[in-house]
């Protein structure tokens, strides 16, 4: 199901007057509204194919309705999101859940929907039906070379699919680790993993990046072999220039200072990209910005400052992806909320005056430095986002329009109540 | 599959000499070996029916082999454990996974295996096929009275099954809570839950206990309606004398002092029982004693001291249950390790000299108090456990015998490779 | 040093035009600007006397300048804050750091400065010069009755001072606890503390409240005898109707859901008041709102909703106090930032539409509930606070005026560079 | 005060029979008692000079008695410990608290006491009286080059003192970081610190090591510039072969897997040494082994396995130091407990059969791997430690002898009740 241009225009017209009042006020408060809106229009966040259906926990899953059950339907869902906000112009696929049968047709569909193929994701944390060897005790780290080879082959196959579709990066998230003291020789697990990653790295096309994702715990509950940014950095730096660290906001120990990690990885030229979500306890995979929006802002503040310091392109030089689970919400509404929260944080970060902040830091004027950050954060930037959407042809109120048009009801009609997406 | 008395005897005979050397040494180091062994023999830990198969995480489950697929087979597995260690003389059932079809026959089987029926567990955290209303947004807390009533009815049905089997307690673990700020009115959720529990409480036979379990988070990742001991205490004290708090070792925020909670609940006469397991990060449900054995000892130290202070019976006045998940181990071996760890902690706690400790505390002699605790903890009490097993007719080395007799292989032959137990 | 009315007026005049533009916009976005501003004017936050100087850590303290070294100077500092924001109309004293020598004169000074005397704070966590018995091993919990009596007497003395000054509440924060397993008998410590508190409670005037503050850890690093809200609730409910729980935002285990605790305590009629601050790791005592502003908003959302549900008066029925430490900032500037952050959260909470939220909750419309909360939170309410200040005769930009008038430099001149306030 | 050989011999004689019974039993249970005892005799743990007096918290300090107030007295205290356990044959000094006035005399005293000078510690986390520039906003990270230079000069001075005494390593622990978002430019702070460390590194003698200690938080409560092992590793690897990471057990975020960090640092040849202590919440600096003894064992298991894999000398190739605070215990007794706990963990780690463990790991036999670790850990190795002490001329029961001889009372007599050691 897709929207018509007219549907969007009618929606916007009804809200336009109010929007203009808001926009005029806010744009009058900031020095560079036009440039900022340009950046907001360009900033795109990739949607993961596995987030289009309801997720669950080990205790069960409460199904949604009208979920996309084919790869084509997943693209259509992302296309719909992108129509609504013009900020979701990419999809991140997951193999084996999203094996393309006809890459050409798929690329054509993506082009129609104005979508790009973002990072490809491999899966060696589950056993698939018919799989020869089990990943119960790990994949790239496994004590058995044959298991490692199977996992390596899988990753190389994922690269192959990605090449067919025009993707340019591979995200390797490993569940590898151990559940009990003694289960693993940490050094051997590390070195096996490094060797395995090295073979995959060698299969990477020249224009590709490899993202080495880290995670503190879960599904292994004693150790994880790529457990923190330090380990990911070690892998990435040993592998070579195409290997980078990927930061998932939920993959840290309690109270970690993620924004500092981001700044240091940028400093070391090893930050590759992001998996956005939010969390209170662990890898809760909640809607971005729903729990700790100020932390999200602080991360973006480091991103903007650090990328600008190295002359990086905000839109292309890092991978921006969502990785969340939708246990109690309509996944499409949840994703609209997440993209909005990301772009709010980005807009607020752009409002921080770098010169004034630098001066405050140079003077150790901690109070002023805080005022500058809070001043940007407390600004209501929603009219700026709305203006960017309006200019890009999206809806002023994406969730409002989604509800008004009863999109989910339409999808249920098209796909049936019990259509279930692949994923967790 | 059950063991013969001869198999156990032969096994013990081979190990007897070594055991005697060990036992003579240790029993010579402590004042009251006989009394202690008597207590060890009497101390029984209930096995949950859902822990006899492999557990998984939201990322997947790696199946075991030869799991029990009927309730009878589950009893047999526990019967087997009990033969091996004579310390697992009870099973804790879970409805709807373990609905007894013929209660009489089941009781007979249990009697043959020398097993009791421990606490009954209800399940309102999942939707069952054919269930009318969904628990997606909670059960006893639900904004919709009809959903609450459905959950109440389920709990009353669980009591009915329990009565038929001779159980005497109901464990209510609620996943109820919320994933996002704003989702729930905390007060209404609390008060709805209290009302619902009240109706269930009223249906409780006079000789029954209700255990109100608390958990900090998961599967809800923002709030849990029975989220900590304070909330459980509030419910239990408002409900009445038959209502108690149940402590699951994995259900706390990081760094919680569980032993202090235990001591206070005993002081308030509101401690009901335990779900034993171990964890490093969250509700990891690892083998008991595999991560923080000293904490386990400290908890038992409080239990022994607090129960003795109130003249309670160690074996009957609290509920002792395991609640763990077996992602990478044979569940039966894992349970043998868990029961062993529990009894080691119990034995060590019994070695603490209460008079000397009290004197050290009275003198604020912190060094001596620590020496007394560590002195007990550092004692190798395994020969005492072995002596208790020997005297009770169990195996000196339960895991050793289990492996020697290739029990799992036998179970696979009997039940097939792909037999899967109900559970998570 | 105090400001003149003229100084404030001149400052406001210069900012007025810009303020009016901002205010007109925001007040046009919300339904009830006038009523809201009235509430903001009435909302007062007490300043603790010990927060007027620089704090330190166990690793050292970096002194500030021109700190108040007499009780009179402390009142003057708070009076100055109150002039700047008309929101700090109370001071919370700490005995023995603030023993009033001439209560009458002090009350007169307070009246001149338009200040009230908020909760009195006792101190049994340190030994004072000449003190007979040591609190090294606790105070109200101590194994030695004589130590307990000394601590009881001290608290009763604090009440006496408070009565002279017209205060109406006593905050009891106990460092009591233990550093090592075995050091303490938890039950006896609890019961001793209860007995001791009972005697103090009996000495409380009828119109007074007793606030029982809890804290998870520090300065004791194994157990704390009033360690969490559950323990505080137990004490408060056993003591009687005048005893309440006091919540300090930094006194929890990692990831605690403080807003839920607040809601439950309100539900149980046992919430007494707050110590505001912010933290990332533990009891970091940072500026309010500097780390987790959304959590602060969620807490205020519960406060507003819960107080309204019980018909409570926002300004009087709970105690609002700051408790922070100023290691790297000018304390007065830091306090201005804290008060601002508190009132921003309060204003945002007042913007949440209770009817719409209730409806969303009733429909389990989690997405809408989140939109409602975030809609309020994302609103830039600073112009509303400024309008309230303007109306109350305070400065439109308190920190701006403080800096413009070089207040700290004046204080240094008056008091000397090395004047040091009592405190930590 | 020093002990006489006779005092020790008489003490041992009284305990000998009991010891022999214990020792015969344990040595009969393990394959290699003699070799193990040899290793235990050789294993020495350095005592920090600042741990010989009572520590405190930001809330206050409860003084002990008879603390050493001169550097000579500190050496004597360590000498006394070393007499008691023959395992504390080194002292770690801290500048400016321990500036040697007469290095020659001090070396002579150390030689008499059979003590070595372990790592030298610099201090740029406090301002000293008369210090020109303040470290309030950092030292080696500071925005002001002059402050950085002052801190560099101080470190170079510390090296100079160390050279005079025959020390061979410098521990750099930096409190540098920030308390509030915005205070610091993370990249500049990192790069300034790297530059500063580089200059100090260049001043290091060829045979010296530099230990770069990391800490997650405190005394800065938002960010720390050497905040985790990853950052320390970055510094150490950029500095050169003489720079290493130092692990303090209390310097991590909650739930960190420290043993894995240790294994990886060994793998990367960047582990330099340890600061031993224990903790429940943060950097609690409690007695080693008093909270998480199994974690300590797991760390030593990695140390033994990892050092052996690289052919390292257990006694010399890593730095073993205690860093604890003694708030409620006699510091000397506390240190005896800490050294005992360290050596118990070391002995248990030596009991793990590496071949069997490797085989279990190779077979993914998680149950057996756990049994092997727990088998070693549950062994009561205290008689082995006692045997090592006996052989080395130390006391069978160090704390017992310390108390029997009323050492503290003697020290109070010699030094006075109110003698206070320098330190925190």
TrEMBL record, chains A, B, C, D:
Pfam families: AP_endonuc_2 (PF01261)
Highest rank taxon of the organism: Bacteria
Residue ranges of domain Xylose isomerase-like TIM barrel in the record: 101-285
Any GO molecular function: isomerase activity
SUPFAM superfamilies in the record: Xylose isomerase-like
Keywords, comma-separated and alphabetical: Isomerase, Manganese, Metal-binding
PANTHER family in the record: L-RHAMNOSE ISOMERASE (PTHR30268)
Name of this protein: Sugar isomerase
Organism of provenance: Niabella ginsenosidivorans
């Amino acid at each position: 199901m897709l929207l018509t241009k007219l549907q969007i225009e009618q929606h916007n017209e009804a809200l336009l007057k109010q929007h203009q009042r808001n926009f005029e006020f806010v744009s009058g408060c900031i020095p560079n509204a036009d440039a900022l809106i340009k950046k907001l229009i360009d900033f795109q966040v990739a949607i993961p194919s596995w987030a289009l259906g309801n997720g669950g926990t080990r205790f069960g899953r409460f199904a949604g309705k009208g979920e996309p059950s084919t790869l084509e339907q997943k693209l259509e869902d992302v296309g719909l999101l992108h129509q609504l906000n013009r900020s979701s112009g990419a999809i991140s696929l997951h193999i084996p859940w999203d094996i393309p049968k006809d890459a050409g047709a798929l690329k054509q569909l993506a082009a129609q929907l104005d979508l790009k193929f973002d990072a490809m994701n491999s899966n060696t944390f589950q056993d698939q039906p018919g799989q020869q060897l089990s990943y119960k005790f790990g994949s790239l780290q496994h004590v058995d070379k044959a298991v490692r080879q199977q996992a390596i082959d899988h990753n190389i196959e994922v690269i192959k699919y990605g090449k067919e579709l025009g993707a340019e990066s591979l995200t390797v998230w490993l569940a590898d680790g151990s559940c009990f003291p003694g289960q693993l020789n940490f050094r051997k697990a590390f070195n096996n993993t490094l060797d395995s990653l090295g073979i995959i790295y060698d299969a990477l096309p020249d224009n590709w990046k490899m993202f080495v994702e880290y995670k503190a715990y879960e599904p292994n509950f004693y150790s994880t072999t790529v457990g923190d940014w330090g380990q990911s950095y070690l892998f990435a730096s040993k592998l070579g220039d195409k290997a980078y660290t990927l930061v998932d906001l939920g993959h840290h120990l309690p109270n970690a200072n993620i924004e500092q990690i981001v700044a240091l990885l940028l400093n070391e030229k090893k930050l590759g990209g992001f998996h956005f979500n939010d969390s209170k306890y662990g890898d809760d995979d909640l809607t971005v910005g729903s729990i700790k929006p100020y932390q999200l802002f602080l991360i973006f503040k480091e991103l903007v400052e650090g990328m600008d310091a190295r002359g990086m392109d905000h839109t292309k030089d890092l991978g921006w992806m969502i990785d969340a689970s939708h246990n109690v919400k309509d996944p499409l509404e949840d994703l609209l909320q997440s993209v909005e929260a990301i772009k709010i944080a980005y807009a607020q970060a752009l409002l921080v005056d770098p010169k004034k902040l630098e001066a405050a830091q140079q003077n150790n004027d901690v109070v002023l430095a805080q005022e500058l950050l809070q001043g940007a954060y407390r600004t209501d930037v929603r009219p700026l986002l709305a203006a960017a959407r309006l200019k890009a042809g999206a809806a002023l109120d994406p969730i409002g329009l989604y509800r008004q048009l009863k999109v989910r009801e339409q999808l249920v009609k098209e796909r049936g109540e019990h259509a279930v997406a692949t994923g967790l």
